[in-house]
Each structure stands twice: as C-alpha cells, then as structure tokens.
Amino acid sequence: MSASSASMTSSSSVSTPAFWERLWRTSGIQFAVFFIIAAVIYGYQPQIGASSDALSAFYNGDRTRILIAAIFSGLNLLNLLWFAAALRTTLTAEGQDGWGAAATASSTAFGALLLLQITVGAALAYSIAGSGNAALISGLNDFTWALGVLISFPRAMLIMSGVFGLWRARLISNALFTVGVVAVVLGVMGGTTWLSGGFWAPDGAYARFVSPILLLFWVVVVSRVLLTRSPSTRAAW
Fold this sequence. Notes:
single chain; about 0% strand; about 75% helix; globular; mainly alpha; about 240 residues
C-alpha cells in the first residue's frame, strides 16, 4: 500500500462514528490517570482554619504548580464528560434510557461543582492570595473543602447510574453489582463528613482519599466493561 493510500485509509477510519465511540469509551481510563497526575501536582491543600502563613505559603509559594494542576483538571473534566456520554449511549442501546439520562444529569452536576472547586483554587493562587485579605483567603479555602463534601452526592448518583444501568442491561455480574452498590453507599456517606476534625471532617482522610478513590475505581471498571462491547454502527457521534 502506498503512503497516500495509507493516509486516506487512516483518515477514513478516523471519520467513522465507531472510531470516535471507541475512543471516548477510553476517556474513563484517561480520567483516572490525569486525576492522579493533577492531584500530585496540586499538592496538599491547607486544612480548614489553617493559619495565614500556611495559606500564603501554599497559594503564593506554589502558585505556578496550582495553576498547572488547574489546567490538567480542567482538561480532565472533559474526559469525564465524554466518558459519561459513552456510558449513556451504551445504556440507551441496551434499552436503559432512564439510567443513561441519570448518568448525563449526575455527570453534569458533578462537573459543575468540580469546575467551581477548580476555579476557586486557581483564583486564590492567581491573585486573591496576593491581596493580603486573610479573612477572604481563609473563607475561600474552607469553601473548597465544603465543595469537596457536597460533590459526593452527584458523584454517588453517577456511580449508581452505571451500576444499576449496566446490571439491568446484564453487562455486569451480580457480584460486581454488589460491589457497585457498596460503592454507592460509601459515596453517599461522603456527603456526611462534617465533623470539626479528624477522619470524618471535610478535610479528613475519608473526603480527601476514600471518596475520590471510589470514583476512580468505578470509572476504570466501567471503562473495561464498555471496551468489551463492540461500538454500535450509528450516527450518534
């Protein structure tokens, strides 16, 4: 095959709906990878009620790192939304339109709260932290932790839509469904982490580590399920 023929073949395959649908089915795995990268770059955010010196050292001292993490997080949000779109089309094709609509609604709500959280952190690093207004800086820092708690509800609904939708479509086993239900319950519990300190606080280990890991685990598992399905031939993309 000549170079020109190979180029035309490649261009033709890229233009097919099946190519794009399969590509977006991998968005969940991309989301998990970039989430970890962004979290490592961002570092450990000061806890609720942190001192002015700690807040300044983080938002001013690590300004460039925080803004780079915001870029990765913003781009990664697109991966999550494409993943949710691929999940919906799969559920719709299996006759589970209701759960597909739930995936779209929950991913939209989750994405909106996540984008707000990213925006506040980036704004603090970009200029607000340099203003010297300690009360405002502390309040916005605490606000981002509160968002991390409230985001648990749409995140749990997003997990639930995939768990129940794929199970009803008989694309996952009963054992995996049980694990998914446990993940949903644990996800909802993340919205109750309002203690003043410790493991169950907004800045505690559960909200910071356990809740996000539940989403990453679920996204990777569902991505594997979606990738085992041959993309349907349709003009959905």
